[in-house]
Amino acid sequence: MRREPTARQLRLATELRRLREAAGLSSREAAALLGVSPAQITHIESALAGVSELRLRRLAVHYACTDDELVSALVAMATDRTRGWWEEYRGLLPTPFRDLAELEQHAASLREIQFLYVPGLLQTEAYARALYAYRVPELPDEELELRVKHRMQRKVIIEGPDPTPYEAVIHEAALRIRVGDRPASRAQLANLVESSEANHIAVRVIPFDLDGFGGSWTAMMLAGGAVPRLDTVVRDGPHGAAFIDSEAQLGVFRTLFRKVETVSLDPDRSRDFIHRLAKEL
Length: 281
What we know:
This protein is of the alpha/beta class. The protein has helices at 7-22, 27-34, 38-45, 53-62, 68-79, 95-106, 125-133, 141-154, 156-159, 172-176, 182-196, 247-263, 267-280; strands spanning 109-114, 166-171, 201-206, 220-224, 232-237, 240-244.
């Protein structure tokens, strides 16, 4: 029995429950079909227990799930035993830090919208440190440095040998707010320009002078799953990151991203825009 399931394990459990409910079966009926106790189905669907590939595929047959790509993606989630770099922070940082890193690691693509801050994956160390230093209540020095280190390690997904496609839409406000001092702000903008030159990274800017823009509440990260059904939206909340995965809500956020992306400057104009801001500092 797991004491602390990860967000990825919880998502697998949620998808298995959704498949069962879509088939119109109770947990007791599903247990009878699989030849296990109802308690075991409950444990699987709450991510307190894992499920083998054989049992998962049997459940998919009983649930009349004919989406082979989805089933294969769920099998990959169920059988993955990878212990990523984020595990070194277990017990040192809140759980959402590890869950976010794991989500990013397994994402097929990442798309992000930010209005007040440079996205975490594109932050410099000085920028991230200035952000965490402003937190109330103040963080002990040791925890602050752990959070900065964790944020810098997250960059492996866009800076490593097999980078994940990444698109960021950033409002001009986030570019102009001096989170750190002038040199740190200039270095952050220069880093954005440099990052945007990579083939797998697209940075788009929403300028202040855009008419009719009312989407400033849509800050989010949209992590693409192995299949669209397994997409996840991450939004910052007052008590930490919230992971959103219901199909109805995912549809809303996909539409919002397209709307924001459409009105933003294209990557080349955005790069020139950020470069000009850096020269003004």
